[in-house]
Amino acid sequence: MEANSQAREEIVSSLYEAYRSSIPISPIREEYELTLSDAYRIQRAVTERRRSAEGPHVGYKVGFTSEAIQNELGIDEPASGHLLAGTLESDGRVDLGPLVEPKVEAELAIRLEEPLTGPVTPAEVLTATKAVVPVVEIVDCRINDWDVTAAEAVADNTLSGRVICGNRIRDPSSLNGNLALEGIRVRKNGTQEATGVGADVLGHPCNAVRWLERSLRECDDRLEAGDIVLTGSVTPLVPIAPGDFVEVQFATFGTITLRGT
Asked: DSSP secondary-structure letter at 204?
């Protein structure tokens, strides 16, 4: 059945309750057929409900930036989700209790100093950037067993969970255009689990920001000064459970460590 307005409201309520209770729901497609347009409407509505407990909007995440993930989900472009202030944390101990089935991925984030409007080049993205920040995103899925389609994942805020921000923030003017070459290594409990480089994100992390700018512009929206943009995972997903110790080593941005509790 296609998702009409009443169906979308039912999905919004179910997903919001899954966020609140940490109890996942069954795949939405068992009852409703979602389009990506439906999914983004649901995403926005759930995010609005979450703001009272998790704070204001502070930026966006870009997901599905690898060709392998796009092929798996049957899509040909990335997707975006919203970041709320209460989901940003510093490294150290991370409470996994509110999450369902968390996994970590390493990324580079961009904090904008000025709005972005109109088609932009990677160089123009960096010109508008106040800082580049190393992050570990803890992604999560409020649908059972990570059994999702692209539309279901988008409705679930593109699987956003928590964002661990590193302390080594870099002035973009000091990077000499080397974000595409930034190497990242993920170790869990002393064992290397994943590696990647900045170029694994659409050829360059700034391309994720360019895609997001275009996507928002098509919806009569834009990236604002102060927005944080997670540009997409450089590494494959690594599951994390209470007691796990994760180290994410960036070639020039230092190391982020976290322990699940």
From this structure: S
How many whole angstroms separate alpha carbon 116 and alpha carbon 225?
Answer: 8
Residues 6+ apart with CB under 8 A from 5: none
How much is the CA Rg of the chain, to the nearest whole Å? 17
d(CA 162, CA 156): 13
Q: pTM of this prediction?
A: 0.93
Q: Residue 204: which residues within 8 A CB-CB, separation 6 or more?
A: 122, 179, 180, 198
Could you tell me the mean pLDDT of each successive run of 10 residues in the chain, 261 residues long? 80 97 96 93 97 96 82 82 94 90 95 92 91 95 94 96 87 73 96 94 94 93 96 93 97 94 93
Please choose, from the candidates 197, 180, 193, 185, the residue with its C-alpha nearest in 3D space to the C-alpha of residue 234: 197
| Domain 56-260 belongs in CATH node 3.90.850.10 | yes
Domain residue spans in the chain?
56-260
Name the token pair of 158: 């593109």
CA distance 79 to 46: 16
Q: Which of 250, 17, 246 is nearest to 138 (CA)?
A: 246
Phi/psi for 242 (5° steps) reads -55, 135
